[in-house]
Amino acid sequence: MKDWNGTDQVVLRTPRGASVRVSLHGGQVMSWRNDKGEELLFTSSKAIFKPPKPMRGGIPICFPQFGKGESLEQHGFARNKIWKIDENPPPLHPSDSNGKSFVDLLLKPSEDDLKFWPHSFEFCLRVSLGINGNLAMISRVRNINGRQFSFSFAYHTYLPVSDISEVRIEGLETLDYLDNLCQKERFTEQGDAITFECEVDRVYVSSPNTIAVLDHEKKRTYVIKKEGLPDVVVWNPWEKKSRTMADFGDEEYKQMLCVDAAAIEKSITLKPGEEWTGRLEISVVPSSYCSEP
Ligand code: BG6
């Protein structure tokens, strides 16, 4: 199928009717539905479906940089580029394919990208939908440069929530975080689960590989499992910032929360020929869920 501006999209489905829609624009997951047809990712009612920017929602990919930088645009260029379907992907572990519906995408830097970030790479992205409806993403970045390079990365995951003030995140308690609202100053989280009553823009560092986002009102929990991604970004723009974002409704901060599996504090460094892998798996389970130790 094609999306609103002619960019190709790929739809994955399970026999029971769960689905994932991925756009070649940015390799962005645009939609993920369970077998009842319920949407499991947030999309803003004001989202703009027009390159070069990613639409506000789903799962944009932040690479080769998370946040602002000197020569690159905010969150890097990968989310703004047109990816290709990878007809010949490098082999993965058989458990990454068994019983799953998947698509492999590929991004290589253009001449223009190399002017701003002079490092040749191959970025292979597998998006897959398990038979149980779980969404998985595997990113593999290979250095095909003569010199080493470093990058940061995030799966910028927009989750829909019923009421932000009723949501809590488990698995980040007692961790250190860098606060983007205070010049990246480092703080330590207290012992309680994370709850929300104002703007939050933080990078929790060295987090466990499983965290849970509990939506009390919807009686459902997002379980986020990650590998190769030590950090977790937690972002909600709250009222004031929402009003400054053209592609986001003034009140929509109440119904969304970004929780990103990421590698930010310590950038990933690849020597020539080396490859990095970052995995994300998200499932939705009913009622409460306690994160693994
Ligand atoms: C978050 C950042 O992950 O992304 C915020 O921590 C930023 O600082 C937000 O505002 C949205 O970024 P963008 O570029 O998609 O508007």
Essential attributes:
4% helix; eight-stranded antiparallel β-sheet; Aldose_1/G6P_1-epimerase; carbohydrate binding; isomerase; Beta-galactosidase, Chain A, domain 5; EC 5.1.3.15; glucose-6-phosphate 1-epimerase; 293 residues; 40% strand; 2 helices
Report on the structure:
The protein is mainly β. It has a single domain (9-286), classed as Beta-galactosidase, Chain A, domain 5 (Distorted Sandwich). It contains 2 helices and 19 strands. Strands 4, 9, 10, 12, 13, 14, 17 and 18 form an 8-stranded antiparallel β-sheet that branches. Strands 5-6-7-8-19-16-15-11 form an 8-stranded antiparallel β-sheet, with no helix packed on it. The protein has a 3-stranded antiparallel β-sheet with strand order 1-2-3, with no helix packed on it. The radius of gyration is 18 Å and the shape is globular. The model has no long low-confidence stretch (mean pLDDT 94). Bound molecules: 6-O-phosphono-beta-D-glucopyranose. Residues 74-75, 156, 180, 201, 233, 235, 258 line the site of 6-O-phosphono-beta-D-glucopyranose. Its EC number is 5.1.3.15. Keywords: Isomerase. It holds the Pfam family Aldose_epim. Belongs to the glucose-6-phosphate 1-epimerase family. GO terms for molecular function: carbohydrate binding; glucose-6-phosphate 1-epimerase activity.
